[in-house]
Amino acid sequence: MKKLTLLLMVLSFATGLAAQGLDPAKLLQPPTDTWPTFNGDYSGRRYSPLSQINQDNVRSLTLAWAFQSHAQAPISATPLEVNGILYFTLPNDVWAVDARTGVQIWHINRAAQGGLAGAGHRGVAMYKDRLYYTTPDAKLLCLDARTGKQIWEAQMADPALKAFGSMSPLVIKNHVLVGVSGDIADLPGFVEAYDPMTGKLQWRWDVMPKPDDPAWNTWPHDTDVITRGGGMTWLTGTYDPELNLTYWGTGNPHPVEAGDARLGANLYTCTIVALNADTGKLVWYYQISPHDTHDWDAIQTPVLFDANFKGKRRKLVALASRNGIFALLDRTNGKSLITVPYIDINWMKGLDERGQPIPKKETEPKIDGVLARPGAGGGTNWSAPSYDPNTGFLYANAKESIGVYYVTMPGKHAEGWGGRDFILWSKSVLKAIDCQTGKVRWSRDMSGARYGWASILTTAGHLLFTVDDSGRLLALDPGTGKELWHAYTGGSSTSAPITYELDGRQYIVTPADGVVFAWALPER
Fold it and tell me: What is the pLDDT of residues 41-52, one digit of tens each?
């Protein structure tokens, strides 16, 4: 009997490895038995239709298993879960772990050459039986999901210029979309698409406009600043299959905080862009921080949903941006519907004819310093938001903050970091934003001994999961913010909770520091 049991376990394990391929249809469905991409599905909502764990029983939630990575750095990746296997990363590591038990299946460690190894990492993407992973030395790797063995690699940018990879790619049909990270040298940002089987570049969209683009005139041309103008694409975009448009946020312009070197709006930095997923052609844009001088990149997740708005059914995209602004747009054309602050700010004096914010000149950095709200960390940052269709609220972990900003390289020849900034005061808050009005319906103090940027998950069990700055995993009522359950994870979290159901049991998975925790209701 023992031999038979062992044989069945081996056969089960082998079957799991053989079935590691991702069914492409899963990317088009709400996440249930899988979490197949960075945000769970293409919409960026991080909302699960699972409800086995709900408000009535969440107090019974218990630890199902924990995986210790023994890593020195915190895991900031969103795990993927496909066919009962979890995949998660650090900048130089990828793990495959049994999603039911936490038992390691394989692990690779890769020594990076150059780049920025100390940066965080957001995770992998998957196409059939292959994984895609961006590296600190600015490469895109294709790995065999069954073994972790490398199949091909592509060089995205030059690591000698401090470009690096930290994002989780986005798989759309037969395209692997990636962006680039980098904040030290003056580099131009981009979004690229690669063939998932061969690694061949399919298309590239550059954040810096070309001379035949009207946006070219939003930069000065008496220096070469436009050739190195920033606009990094740090975080994973979203996708509307019906429109065949992919939505991305772009980073801040360079030189950072030295606005006199780049007079103008500096398109397409700090902008939400809609690109044709097959060609990379720009369809529309909305610049949420024109002529940014505070390092307030707009790479936060563009969240897609359909809803009635002012009596009309519309396809919408919402963004809670680093500059403290909430924007709601028509995602078919980029038309502004709502543009309002969701935290206290002092840098905006109104809206232009496109509904874009108009910055105040007096809050731009000065040689002797200037106060601005929010501080340099921004309202929200890289932590992923969530949208709950039952409440109609967008949830974002944010900071109420005040910063002082300095110019250190005045004039038109500034380079790199042409300024400095210091946060004078900051308080962590969780904001629930009504997407019909832009008003904050409730706010919760998330402060603690640590400085976290945890992401958010909402579910059909009428629950919101996130982690506060004390390292507490929280289950909240998404309608009110009331605490329903908590557990101490023993560490801070810059990662995102995910959920999936296997063999009739729902799991909530939450990385914290170097440990991945899985929570579930007690087995009967």
Answer: 999 999 999 999
Q: Give CA–CA dist 458/477, Å, rounded.
A: 10
Q: Which residues are catalytic?
A: 295
Q: DSSP assignment, residue 79? A: P
Band of pLDDT at residue 13, cut at 50, 70 and 90: very low
Type of residue numbered 80: L
With cut-offs at 50, 70 and 90, classify the pLDDT of residue 9: very low
Cβ neighbours of residue 488 closer than 8 Å, sequence gap 6 or more? 470, 471, 472, 473
CA-CA distance, 497 to 154, in Å (whole number)?
A: 30
Are 107 and 93 a contacting pair, CB within 8 Å? yes
Q: How many helices (H) and strands (E) does the chain have?
A: 1, 36
Indicate the DSSP class of residue 444: E
Q: How far is CA 512 from CA 44, 57, 74, 87, 234, in A?
A: 22, 24, 7, 15, 21
Q: H helices of 388-482, where?
A: none
Structure tokens, 509: 């998975």
Is beta strand 515-520 parallel, antiparallel or unpaired with respect to 505-512? antiparallel
Amino acid at residue number 219: W
CB count in 10 Å sphere of residue 453: 22
What pLDDT score does 182 carry? 85
Task: Give 482's contacts (C-beta < 8 A, 6+ positions apart).
Answer: 476
CB 428 within 8 A of CB 368: no
With tokens 């065949």, the residue in question is 244
